[in-house]
Specification:
Arc Repressor Mutant, subunit A; 4-stranded antiparallel sheet; 37% helix; 11 strands; 8 helices; globular; DNA-binding; homodimer; 2 domains; Jelly Rolls; 22% strand
Chain lengths: 241, 241
Amino acid sequence: MDELFKDFQISCNNCNLDTICLPRGLSQQEIENLNSIIKKSSILQQGEYIYRQGDPFKGIIAIKSGTAKLVANDTEGNEHILNILLPGELVGFDGLNNKKYNCSAIALDVMTYCELPLPAEQFETLCQQVPSIARELFKHSSESICESQNQVVSNKRPAEEKVALFLINLSDRLNKRGFSSLSFNLPLSRQEMGNHLGLTLETTSRMLQHLQNGGLITVQRKKITINNLSSLRAVCSHDLK
Amino acid sequence: MDELFKDFQISCNNCNLDTICLPRGLSQQEIENLNSIIKKSSILQQGEYIYRQGDPFKGIIAIKSGTAKLVANDTEGNEHILNILLPGELVGFDGLNNKKYNCSAIALDVMTYCELPLPAEQFETLCQQVPSIARELFKHSSESICESQNQVVSNKRPAEEKVALFLINLSDRLNKRGFSSLSFNLPLSRQEMGNHLGLTLETTSRMLQHLQNGGLITVQRKKITINNLSSLRAVCSHDLK
DNA sequence: CGGCTTGTTGAACCCACTCAAAGGTTGTGG
DNA sequence: CCACAACCTTTGAGTGGGTTCAACAAGCCG
């Protein structure tokens, strides 16, 4: 299978994700320098790991195609799906702290990714060769932080709103990355979705059903169609008290 | 009041937080360069803002003494306490994304802080003058990410464990920063603590009471004494299912 | 088809919330 | 210094949203 992709060496220059992924905000010269550092397009099958919780930090990962999930295992061995990852998104910032990844990244379907190696001692070199990269990486890291913050806030809402917010967030992110934002396939099972939202799979199913009954969305197994995005947003605008 | 502190210009060199705050991991020369960039020790009274959600990003903040809370306001105006901030901890990474802060930082008592200005155009300059700073800032940013991730995981546990985990986390962080880790004052009211943990103030009060009845902690209003840290940790080690 | 996985639906239960009231603590003015 | 008010905390009783347990339907793949 790998042979198929061996010659498929898309560089950062001509990658279609250049405005949202790593090359974002870099000069042409910087992109070429970046290009020589990046490890390009590895391919994974569903269920395979990009990296595992506890693995020594190797670098920042850029999702190129397909989707992945970010999973943390707690001390009892329970899995917690922290987020799902879409093309153009970066992960691995959690690994810079203790030089090992704080959670695992697992392919949800056939997917490809690129890798920006960042060994501690090469940090300064990278900043010299690609001066803007530090700033851009910080922006991406900052995005991750904002995402988690919003997630913590969403966590306190009732089940229906959690589900609605999840769909809205997914829709927005797909939109930003040039995908269809009103009709898409959930990359997660009800079980996984419930896990991510802090609900049981039954509740998740019921809430999707309920949103469908209200005419806001159409659910066909994993395929979601948003019929009325503004009304869906309105679902999440009820005072908690 | 400010006059009292005007001459009290402690530099990063002789700050007692040098091993955990910004100067961590920097060379002597770098610390001196850093020192010339940093705005030192502003003082705030309880309730005053370090920065407000939506304010244009001005820089990374280092808590020097006292405590603060990180607060996000959702679209309905509800407050959500994302975290509390202890001396030596850095905040503001959430502001690098959209050049404005994603949440507010508010003093919980009389406190002081330093500021590392980081205008976009000066990023490269800073990286030149203090080559290790990018790496160290990323580590701190990474710490924030890991913290939020752990918080999301804790959020799914029952009320008693949430409270126990909060106390343990606080104890660990106090310990790492050289404070007493087994006896400390909660900087938050029950109301605020409940808000932070996604519980009501009544439940928070009850859970503290319950942990006290089990002999694990002693509660005297805001003063917490941990009588048995390992048993307290054990409270959080029950299978969810 | 038959076995298996995934998703839906129903009914009973329980943890945390809500509402309410009492007890403590702190601050202020007489 | 005491009295009173304002606020915070504790405690109790009832309610409800989401879970649990269980059965059934729908895809999927041999």
